[in-house]
Amino acid sequence: MGVAVIRPHLQPKLLIAAWALLCLLVAGCSKSSGKPKEYAYVSAPEASLRDQLATVYKKVGKVQNGDRVEVLEKYRRFVRVRNEANEIGWIEQRYLTSPEVYEQFQNLAAEHAGDPLQAPATTRYATNLHVTPDREGEHLYQLKEGSKVEVLARATSEKPVPQGAQPKPAIAKKGKEKAETPSKPMEDWWLVRVPPPAGGTTPARVGWVLARMVDLDVPVEIGQYAEGQRIVAFFVLNHVDDLNKQVPQYLVALNEPRDGTPFDYNQIRVFTWNLKRHRYETAYRERKLEGLLPIRVGQQDFEKEGKLPILTLRVKDDAGNVDVRTYKLNGVMVRRVLPPGQEKPAAARASARKGLRR
Question: Is the confidence at residue 175, as pLDDT, over 60?
């Protein structure tokens, strides 16, 4: 077998080709092993991009709440970024949040996409959407004053005590040797969904807001019957015709007028429309509940009675177990709907008493 011989006049050309190939390989490896791009999201309502970090600067672009930007450089409390419009400039670090927080909001929106609306509401002030019901929780989106939101759920968290403030000392009640430990102040939070604008492509946003920062859009005609209680949810069950006008009939859930209760509501009321007196009246009321949101309403076919409005509650019993209760509205009568084979509570108690007498 012969041996290949490289002619002397070809050697320089081969060396040059080999060197060029080596350079290409090194460049390719360097490019593939380069630092991956870093991104952040704008948490401020709107911010300008500045051309330099001097006191006097020019605005070279702008970003808005929720925009994604590419991080190019960091210096102290500033970050140099590139926005989607390919504008490059400096922005304060406090106006940005991480992709991890953005992902948490995406997961929150997906998790609660099918949750039923408990009440429409309006923001009383400009407020942040938090990823958890906590003032120290991460936030990304900001709502303007007067924004429309959909209330989905409720939670409570410990209210932060101002720095330097001392809790009120516990005072022993009469007949007790020791003072009771003062309870920590709590505050309510709403989980809200922000519907996308009409005709827009922005997906719905979901997050937690302080309950005192929003007002539920309770109709005046039923809000006047709150009797000092706090309305936490309301639903239209059906409509009745009165003088060619469709009048809604409501289910309302109410709670004590204070934050931090271990239940979402302790009372429900069903308001039906009196066709003779042309006014709302209480068709059904149930108190001393330890109810949990969400409440669900709908319709169900009851054969002879036809299709009727129903409402489904989740209520804790004395042992802390959650009992699901369904009720139906037939005219102005509200009745409990029991699963097949389950006796009515009154009938069950009567059977128990009869058995004891035996």
Answer: no
Q: Which residues pair with 187 in a beta bridge?
A: 157
228, pLDDT greater than 80: yes
Assess whether 283 and 201 both reside in one domain: no
Asked whether residue 174 is domain-assigned, the answer is: no
- No. of helices (H) and no. of strands (E), the chain: 4, 22
Average pLDDT value over all residues in the chain = 86
> What is the DSSP code string of 12-36?
HHHHHHHHHHHHHHHHHHHHHTSPP
Cα 338 to Cα 344: distance, rounded to the nearest angstrom = 7
pLDDT at residue 224 greater than cutoff 60: yes
**Residue 335: both structure tokens together:** 């009745």
Host domain of residue 330: 218-353
Beta-carbon contacts of residue 265 (< 8 Å; ≥ 6 apart): 232, 233, 253, 254, 255, 289, 291, 293
What is the residue-wise DSSP string for 144-164? PTT-EEEEEEEEEEEPPPPTT
